[in-house]
Every structure is written in C-alpha cells, then in structure tokens.
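ok so i was messing around last nite and threw this chain in just to see what happens. nothing serious, just curious
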Amino acid sequence: MGLKRKILDKTTSFFSGSFILKRRLDRFLWFFIYLFVLIVLFISWNLYIESRLVKIEKNSAIIKDLEINRQQRALELVSLDYNIKVEKMLQDFGSKLHAPTDQPIRVKGE
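result:
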C-alpha cells in the first residue's frame, strides 16, 4: 500500500506543479514560456507553409490542364485553315457567308 501511495503522491505533485516549487524551477518560468511560444510559432509556421505548398501544387496542376486545353484549341484552329472545313462550319452555323466569286480588285495608289 505504501508504494501505491508514493506513486499517487508523485503523480499528483507532478500534475499540480508543486515539483516546480520544490526544485526552485520557478525562476526559469519565463524561459519555459519563451520556449513554449517558440515551439508554437514553429509549428504554426510549418503548417502555414505546408498549406501554401498544397495551394501551389493544386494551382500548378490547374495550369498544366489549361496549357493542354490551350494547345488542343490551337491545334484545332490550325486545322481550320483548310477551306473545306471552314465552309462546312459556316454551313453548320447557318451563315450566309461564302467564298468570293469575283477576282480581287487591285487598288492603285497615288
């Protein structure tokens, strides 16, 4: 019964903080507070940086998708260079535009 009582006393003295007063550690209280603040700042800074890196990775993935989309559209526009495809698209949209029938007129400058 004596061993259990000693363990219980030491546990309660540890969690109550009386061991700090017994060993005269109270004079280092400001140092402990300083260390605690530094550790909290270090952890919060690392979490902030990690969240920023996650945002950067997401945005770079979005940029890659947009670049692929832009390249695909550029290829589509290059392929529209052929007159047949352009005429077919105009017909699909119901446009009244058509290929010119007359020769171009040369304008002479003064």
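not much to say yet. The CA atoms of residues 73 and 79 lie 10 Å apart.
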